[in-house]
Amino acid sequence: MDNNGVGEYNRKNYAGNIRERINSYAVGGEITQRTQKSKNNNGIAEAYKLYGRIYRHQKNWNSAIEAFTQSIQLYQSCKNPQGEAEGCYEFGLMYKDCQNPSQARHYLQTARSLYEQLGATDAIKRVQTVLATNLGD
């Protein structure tokens, strides 16, 4: 395949990823509405976490911060340390992406601590890899 073919493939792939994100966003909105009606705070927290991931990929940092903050607060109110750890991990990745290493380190270390309390060894390794590779820890 020549360079033009590769470029065409990459453009099509990228366009497909954008469509998937938009569809995820629409589904996320529906999920949020349904879970708010049922008062399912774990479900709402999950929806906010998904929003945060979408905003992170769009580099919409302020919206990502709001979504991840809501997600973590709801997981805390539900006493769901697994969800809280996942939210902190995603939040840390977002701060890494937007070049804020001190905040990235804070949230990744919080995620690691929660994963340690849960005994989630694979998740601990995943966090350690991000800390060591990207933040020099």
Describe the 3D structure.
The model is unreliable at 1-19 (pLDDT under 50). Helix 1 packs antiparallel against helix 2 and helix 4 (81-97) runs antiparallel to helix 5 (101-118). The protein is flat and about 40 Å long. The protein contains six helices and no strands. With 137 residues, the protein is mostly helical. The protein is 88% helix and 0% strand.
Structural descriptors:
137 residues, mainly alpha
How far do the termini sit from each other?
41 Å
Major beta sheet, specifics? none
Helicity, as a percent range: over 70%
User: Whole-number radius of gyration?
Assistant: 17 Å
**Assembly level:** single chain
Unreliable spans: 1-19
Strand fraction band?
A: under 5%
In total, how many beta strands? 0
Find the structural class using helix and strand composition.
mainly alpha
Global shape: flat
* Strand/helix succession: HHHHHH
Query: What is the arithmetic mean of pLDDT?
Result: 79
Total of helices: 6
